Structure formats: structure tokens, C-alpha cells
Amino acid sequence: MNTSLNACKIIVPVDFSEFSVKAFVVANDLAQLFKGRVTPFHSYDLSSNLDGFHYQAKDFRVDGDLLTTHDELEKHLMDYAADYIDYSILDPAVAERNPRVSEAIFEAAETFDLIVMSSHGRTGFKRMLMGSVAEKVLHSARHPVIIAGRETGFSPVEKIVYTTDFSENSYAALPYVAELAGVTGAAVDVFHAICGDFSSVEYLKKITQEREEQLQILVRERLAGLARVNCVVVPGEDSAHHAIRKYYRDKHYNVLIMASCGRSGHDFHAVGSTTTAMVRSTNATIMVVKPDMGLPEA
Question: Tens digit of pLDDT for each residue in 21-55?
Fold first, then answer.
């Protein structure tokens, strides 16, 4: 597996909902930036009439035998993707009959470098909602995952925020920050939240100053090649995800980059509470990197 954005192979799981479009847009922008390739993917289950109902739109219907249906789905998926993905970077679409959507996605993703998907999907049908699917993929996939939000557009990438708790786990996302900012020239905010109830104002000021110095050291050591980096310490919040959301609001970042788990994460498949809360509660575009998926240090 390629552990770089350069020449990355991107898989984009979609459910033909309006929300899927944002994932295609983000994937197309990334592939254009890094000379990557994009493969549309769809997992389907036609055992239920309700489940197949959403396919019966416009000129597309799920009539005929299973093989014909599979071929027609792949063709429909390719046509759907072609409206948003440049033809020069678009690889053949893949449809797989599997009712366990999240399982189908992370198994298909094994031969890819990056998963880009929407945070939301269809509603009102028997199939699993894309929101819960995205969360399950985050827990199970070995690859970096980008959850395409619905707020600020992804491209041109001008502002990136990276969050850290100074754990080695959180540092796994840093190489992707450096690579994306290095190619786009984006400004980067390196963000740390001090959480807890501090009765002493002087002590909180002391801790804040210490953390600011730690961030500056981190930037010098790990992001030295970037011209526009700002260190941000936010003190006094009750939780990291509340601090991130509050700071993120109205800043118009193109992407938030974070590790899947921080200081408390030990299991390979663990997705930390902060990451989970951010995915559930924000419409921002978020890139989540597993702790052992970061690029090797230079």
C-alpha cells in the first residue's frame, strides 16, 4: 500500500444519493493534485424490493438476471462518476453484491491507498445509513479515510487545521499535513486543546505557555518545510472535540486532519472518542489517519 498522497489510488464508496457527489468532488481534487486515480465503488443488495427501489430512477432499472443487474449497476456507477471525475483519472467502477456495506468497503479498499466517502447518505430505505457506514469504515479500515463534509469547499486548499494531543499516535497525521500543504501552499493551524476545570488562572496561563512552546518545537521538527504555520492553544474547554468544533466554526478551513486515536488509543482498530465525536457532529471535511499509517520520517 502506498503511504503517500502522491500517485494515490482512491476508492470512493457511493450510494447514488445527493450526498455522494461531495465525495466525488474531493476525490477528483486530490487525484488532480497528486496524480492519483479514482475508482467509484458501490455495494448493493437486491434481496429486498425496498432496498432496490432507489435504483429505479430516470433511465436505470434493476430488471433482469443478477449478472445483467451487476453489469448495469457498474455502468450506471461509471456514468454517475463521470459527471464529477475527470475522465483521465477515472478507473473502472466496481459494484459488489454485499448487504454488509461497511464490510464490503473496507475489504474492497485493501488494494487502495485512500478512502473518500460522504458523511451521510440515503434515508428511508432498509439499507444502512451512510452516516453509520462511515463510522464503521473508520473503525475497520487500515487506510486513511476522508469524510467529505458539506460546508467549506475542499478546493482550492487554502486552510488546513491539524489537531494534536502531543501523543505519538496523533503525530501519524503530520506527514499528510506536510504533503498536502507543501503541494497546495495552504496555511496550517496546528491546534491543541487544554481540557479541564482549572481553578487557578495563573496555573492555566503557565500550562498554556508550556503547550504553545511544545507546539513550536513540533512545528520546527516536523513541519519545517512549510512557510505558513500557526500554533494555536485553546485552554479551558471541557472536551477536545468541543474545543475543536468551537475553534473550527467560521474559520472556513478546507480540511481538518487528525489521527484516529490519540493518547488513550491502544488498539490498532481504535477510533478515539474525539475523532468519533467530530465525525458525528460536524459537516466539515475530515481526514482521519490510523496511527501506523503515517509516512516515514525523512
Answer: 889 999 999 999 999 999 999 988 766 544 444 55
> Model pTM?
0.85
Q: What is the pLDDT of residues 75-124, one digit of tens each?
A: 989 999 999 999 999 999 999 988 888 889 989 999 999 999 987 655 43
- Cβ distance 11 to 31 under 8 Å? no
SS3 sequence of 217-245:
HHHHHHCCCCCCEEEEEEEEECCHHHHHH
Q: 3-state SS of the chain: helix, strand, coil percent to 5?
A: 40, 20, 40
Q: Domains of the chain, with CATH numbers?
A: 9-148 (3.40.50.620), 159-289 (3.40.50.620)
Closest-CA residue to 218 (of 253, 270, 177) = 177
